Amino acid sequence: MFLHQRFIPGLAIYSYMVGDEKTRQCAVVDPTRDVDEYLAIARHEGLRITHVLETHVHADFVSGSAELKDRLDDEVQIIVSGLGGKEWTPPYADRVVGDGDEIALGSVRLKALHTPGHTYEHIAWALFDDTRSKETPWLVFTGDFVFVGDVGRPDLLGEEARKVLAHQLYHSVFERLPALPDFTEVFPAHGAGSLCGKAIGSRSSSSLGYERRFNGALQRQDEPEWVAALLKGMPIAPPYFRRMKRVNAEGPRALGPEWPGQKRFTAKQVHERACERCLIVDVRAKEAFAAAHIPGSINIPLGHNLPTWAGWVLPYDRPTLIVPDDPADVPEVVTHLIRVGFDDVQGYLEGGVAEWETHGYALGRLDTISVHDLAARLKGADRPFVLDVRTDREWEAGHVDGAHHIHGGTLEERFAEVPRDRPVAVVCGTGYRASIASSFLKREGYVDVSNVLGGMTAWKAAGLPVAMD
Length: 469
Fold this sequence. Notes:
This protein is of the alpha/beta class. It folds into three domains: 249 residues, Ribonuclease Z/Hydroxyacylglutathione hydrolase-like (Metallo-beta-lactamase, Chain A); 96 residues, Rhodanese-like domain (Oxidized Rhodanese, domain 1, 3-Layer(aba) Sandwich); 95 residues, Rhodanese-like domain (Oxidized Rhodanese, domain 1, 3-Layer(aba) Sandwich). It has 15 helices and 24 strands. The strands form five sheets. A six-stranded mixed sheet has the order 1-2-3-4-5-6, covered by helices on one side. The chain has a six-stranded mixed sheet with strand order 7-8-9-10-13-14. It has a five-stranded parallel sheet with strand order 15-19-18-16-17. Helix 9 crosses helix 10. It is globular and about 75 Å long.
């Protein structure tokens, strides 16, 4: 049997390739939209991708099923669950399965197990290797049902749906899961950092026996207490999750091998608005953005968290123009954006901010201050308004006394809480999220805005006082 696990940091996605080494047939489980790696691995291993299997309609990334089918000239079958009804059965599927249905790749078989709770239609895929055992599964692709150290959240479809899904999840955990033996290996769809759970561990796989013993969500309680414990401290779900659900339920368009975002725009073209209605997204480091940037641009520094924050804060109804540090960064940026459904990437600024500067166009700047400077200013007469844009859990673990807490992903809805007649000092964990939030404040017309470099990490390291209220 051939098995490959692919991990995408930031979004913390696991997808899989599994194949029969005799028949050379291969299935891809929960693929992302950037499918070149799957195709390259299949070619290298001499495998033929014949099936694409989904565990559920994903909320945090655009499925790559339609893309794989398009790139392989319809040689593959897309297999989805039909157990959530018509609304949650993607119309682009070639085969709709129910509980107990199987997909054969030769001696390797995958059996659908209905495990609702994260979503109505959710299935896990139990894998059998008939050369070893025809009755007992070797491993299970659990999707967003069971993670290492956690289970999938049931609250992404609204309050009314949550009540039903939480009950279904309890049933799946304590009535469906026990049918599988302890030694069954668990391969989930997400790892640590995903917002599809609240306490996902960093290991890439586990066993059911280990999870039954040490996964808090698999410890039996009365249903109301279990649900309350599961939902306590659940992180805020980004609003783009709702859009991803709709895109994946209806069917994302296939992009093909030629991706968007490759067009080069000169500084003159950008200045003259050749990219009509384009939102300028500056992906340089926060320090470079602070020193000089195009006025009105939004800073989301290039890194693993770019797609998550793009989904949090960028509008989907406007085209995007990228300001990179290096043109070689553009394909990576586009890949991040495509994964979360930003298809209308028009291109990038050729020559970067340096070319903008040499043309003499106006520049924006963002003040930066150290934690020591902030501590000193908080004792003075011109006391800044400290805006903490971290998560609830981070805030509760300690913050600057007198700071105002707004999760960075919800800032645009809460500008009214931030005064315009005082200096604003923005704090996060290290300065990354604060740069994003600061760029939005500047774009909104706030004048005296500073990014506190090093954030609360530096504040605590410097031994400065931490409030816990």
